[in-house]
Amino acid sequence: MLKVQNVYKSYSKAGSLFRKDQIQVLSGISFEIEEGECVGLIGESGSGKSTLSRLIMDLEKPDKGLITLEDESIQVWKKKNQGQISVVFQDYTSSVNPRFTVEQVITEPMMIRGKQEHIKTKATQLLDRVNLSSQFLNRYPHELSGGQLQRVCIARAISTKPRFVILDEAISSLDVSIQAQILDLLKELKTDLNLTYLFIAHDLQAVASLCDKVLFLYKGKIEERLPITELARTENEYAKKLLSSVIAFEA
């Protein structure tokens, strides 16, 4: 479904006026995600994970390389398949309008696309999908816990019936107990709605719990790529380091 081919991305150093003063963030990134798969992208802060997600969402352009969805450029694919790609961000507080009610947060993508018929019923159904009651419809973001608000963000992400969802550190800001609940929800939605995921994280246990494959990103390069079932067989030193840091790890 998704192909990332030899992608490079750099940024100018802060305050620099010279093109040569560039920070290379991604260097020759290539991978594929098949329809229905969940691929985990794991790496430390600053490894380039979020930059890659912005490129895939077409929020930024690569310096070099190609990103396609179903063999079409992102721009063409998105025009033909409006609402079919969505994202859940790490910071659930800044990714919603604090002046919106929960109903408005969830239905905003549908309203933008002109899907206004039975909108309240749809919002109620979406809340039910993420295990929240209709009592939340008229509440505001500040009245919700972190886990509840991230569920609202997930409901918004699936409101347009997407096929491909980017989860950009979507559980990183939550308490450990809530992370487990959200992972269970994401598994359920993936199966029920036949979703394809790119799950970006720095937590190997979370990746192992949700994903079919994992890509290890280090300093802008993919150091290792493995099926989850073969994690213990890695010979890559960076992957070994991450594996050894996980307590009671289960592949």
Automatic annotation (TrEMBL):
Q: Which domain of life is it from?
A: Bacteria
Q: Name one GO biological process term.
A: transmembrane transport
Q: Which SUPFAM superfamilies match?
A: P-loop containing nucleoside triphosphate hydrolases (SSF52540)
Picking any one GO molecular function of the record gives:
ATP hydrolysis activity
The chain positions of domain ABC transporter read 2-244
Pfam families for this protein: ABC_tran (PF00005)
* InterPro entries to which the protein is assigned, alphabetical: AAA+_ATPase, ABC_transp_ATP-bind, ABC_transporter-like_ATP-bd, ABC_transporter-like_CS, P-loop_NTPase
Q: Which UniProt keywords apply?
A: ATP-binding, Nucleotide-binding, Transport
Q: Which family does it belong to?
A: Belongs to the ABC transporter superfamily.
Descriptive protein name: ABC transporter related
- Species this protein is from: Alkaliphilus metalliredigens (strain QYMF)
Q: What are the leading ranks of the lineage?
A: Bacteria, Bacillati, Bacillota, Clostridia, Peptostreptococcales
